[in-house]
Amino acid sequence: MAKNLVSAWQRRGGKLLMGNAAHDNAPLLQAATAQRTQELQQIENGELPTILLTECDSIEFLAGLLAAAAIGAPIVLANPQWVESDWQQIARIIQPNCVWGDCPIVPSSAATNAVRGSVMIPTGGSSGQIRLAMHTWRSLTASVRGFQTYFSQSQINSVCVLPLHHVSGLMQFWRGYVTGGTLAIAPFKSVQAGLRPAVDPATCFLSLVPTQLQRLLDGATDWLRQFHTVLLGGAPAWPELLDRAQALQIRLAPTYGMTETASQIATLRPDDFLQGRRSCGLVLPHVEIRCNPIEPLQIRARSLCLGYYPNFFPSTRHLYPTISATLTNGVNCTSSG
Predict the structure, then answer these.
(1) Structure confidence at residue 318 (pLDDT)
(2) Domain contains 19
(3) What is the separation of C-alpha 58 from the centre of its chain, rounded to a whole number of angstroms?
């Protein structure tokens, strides 16, 4: 079944590019996914194994992800760069039955109570408490559909310079997978050095954090200017950076989102940015935000996670639980839908 997941992406037009090479790596992904699926079938024993995925190699990471998706196995995404204290936190939170990638955690034979088909994405780490936001393929897909509607794109093509284990990188893959788009994965240092993915930037989204944007503005302005949209998030951007990007006619789209909502829930359209607006724009169509000037924002979203493993958020409305969030960059609470 996992092999068919890759084939389905290809039939929708999807491609996987690596570095600055032009050839499609989907066949390699298909073979790696089939291998991972076979491994899972050998260890199932009537129970779906909970997988810890900490692969450095992008194809191996995506293969593990799709193999888990194919059989509905719960999967925990982990940062390969975590230090010992981070791994100790993870070991206290969950004991996986299968580990893909190098880490000090030993697989356990004991069953977990992880939700079937859950995708547990870490938030925090190294400098603070790690929590695992429990998403499902449905919540991730809801985020994709909201993004797709907001930007009026039938296919979403992305140039990914962000880590796949992080929600910012993961969602670039899932947008391409769901919509039959192209995902071009490239190390940021390579892009900064001039080794650019073999795609037409005018058809692609590029996601950056402010420090990455600053570095590319110093040497890749012409390339940046060609993108359909340059999404900016992950940290507050300083006014001088935004003003410089506008002056250079970069189609920037500042966003607001979080791991818990499967990436962005509000985004400023590039045309509005180029006209001088400075906010996180409109709420995406799959999201409802309740604004109160004396309280944190109340967020309802189809893309909202179920809770932090092993605990669930309290919910009074099916698929629309609420969490609080503090928004510092400004957002228009008007829906785009």
Answers:
(1) 38
(2) yes
(3) 14
